[in-house]
Amino acid sequence: MLSNTPAAELMQLILALNKTEKRYFRLYASQRLQRGESIYLQLYDHLIAQGEWSEGSIRAAFAGKRFLSQLVVARTRLQELILASLRDYDHAFNYHLEFSRRMDEIELLYRRRHFDLCERLVRTALRKAAELDLPLESLQLMEWAMRLERQKGGFGSEGRLSQLHAQHAQMLAKITLESHLRKCYDALSVYLPQRASKVGDRSQKIASLMQDSILHTPIAQMAFDAQLIHTYIHQFHARILGDAMGITIANLRIVEIWESRPARIRYGEEQYFAALVNLADSTWQSDSAAVRIPVIAKLKRIAARFKQIQQQQIARILLLDLSQMIFEDAWLEADLLVPKIKAQLQDFGPRIPASNRQGLIGNVITAKFYLEKWADALYWATELETEVGPDAAAQWKNLIRIARWVAWYTLGDHDKLEKALQQQRKTQPTDFIHSYFIHLLQAQREQQEISIIESLRIAVEGQIKQEPTTHLTLLHTWTTAKIHGIPITAAEHIRKNRL
């Protein structure tokens, strides 16, 4: 089935539903379908079971049913029903839908001349719009308030209208300011590092954009969304310059903006959660552990409370938590987290972004390596190899290779190690590490073995200064542990103290 056909689009919509949305759809549809329309639910169940739109399968399953003569109509009706259920499901989390419905109610009451009730709804909605800091919705509601005031007339009406006009102008100025900021945001996003290759010389253009007077407007004059856009522009600029601390400062400000409006968090749980995750992520580059630790703690507290947090976000918390444990040399705590990570990957693997899955498995391998749990390290190395595939990035290939070589050597599985070394010689003859392991396999005495390991440690130490990668760090720590006869965790502690 072609990916851009109406049938394919319906299947994409159905297959993207989570368990709660599926359950809600069945409840919503059963309450709203008329007599004789239950066939749409049956069609939905069939498509869920099949996982694809196959007209032949549908005609075989529903042979003799009248709707088959108008299958396109049935498909359209089912799609409309799913969209309606999602709109209803999202109502509690979407202020746009909430205000849209309220506007419909206000217009309905006004047409029927229920002016007192209409005015009460306008006042309530205006308070809500002010609480959420929504200038566009406030503007529309003020227009209704002015319309009602004109209709009412009488003593004092002129003063009230004058006040409403002043507020209306204030909201209009905020909307204009936000529009200008969005234009700057889009213009600067072109120069982000991942898109930079598509543009020419950018330094003068970027400098010109950042000198725009709109970016020097006091943030207090901006509405909530404009404040976020303003701060993202500065974050973009820091990313373009490679300013790690600037990125962290901007991300911290984004979180502060969210937390300044708790009412907005209810409607934007995912965005707030993502802002916290981005802040924690950015602290690794800026070396801001003092910021990262409380943010991770906050993420863990709110994850269970927020209704909209998806499993891929839970995986990001696990990745941050595990990374912080490794950073703090909390190896046993990291090991205790592994069963939860394994369950998460098994239950929600496809929903978790590939980079997060790979990061989680890579960190598990690191933890198992430092704890010298070699059988586990081999298991997770295989998991990572399956995850990344034959075209894996060098960082993952190297991590898998070193974890396996050290594990096989330590466990005495020399046949597997020898085969792997022979393969490495064929594919990467210039690799310096494999030659040391070949010599280790040939070593006859312990003293000779230690001498080879010492030579490997010196070679790795020289390389690690140019390329401080995970696999070289693991290898350096292992060789240090072997030379001094100490646990790898102790050798890692010595390495960090030297740094």
Entry summary:
The chain has 499 residues and is an all-alpha fold. It is 78% helix and 0% strand. The longest helix has 33 residues, at 157-189.
Task: Note the main attributes of this structure.
25 helices; 0% strand
Give the topology.
Blueprint: H1 6-15, H2 19-32, H3 39-50, H4 55-61, H5 71-90, H6 95-111, H7 115-132, H8 135-152, H9 157-189, H10 203-210, H11 224-241, H12 244-260, H13 262-267, H14 269-286, H15 289-303, H16 311-327, H17 331-348, H18 354-370, H19 374-388, H20 394-411, H21 414-427, H22 433-442, H23 446-466, H24 470-484, H25 488-498
Helix pairs in contact: 1-5, 2-5, 3-5, 6-7, 7-8, 8-9, 9-11, 11-12, 12-14, 14-15, 14-16, 15-16, 16-17, 16-18, 17-18, 18-19, 18-20, 19-20, 20-21, 20-24, 21-22, 22-23, 23-24, 24-25
**Approximate shape:** globular
Number of helices: 25
Quote the distance from N terminus to C terminus. 57 Å
Question: Which percent bin holds the helix content?
Answer: over 70%
User: Which structural class do the helices and strands define?
Assistant: mainly alpha
Residue windows where pLDDT falls under 50 for at least 5 positions: none
Order of helices and strands: HHHHHHHHHHHHHHHHHHHHHHHHH
Specify the biggest β-sheet. none
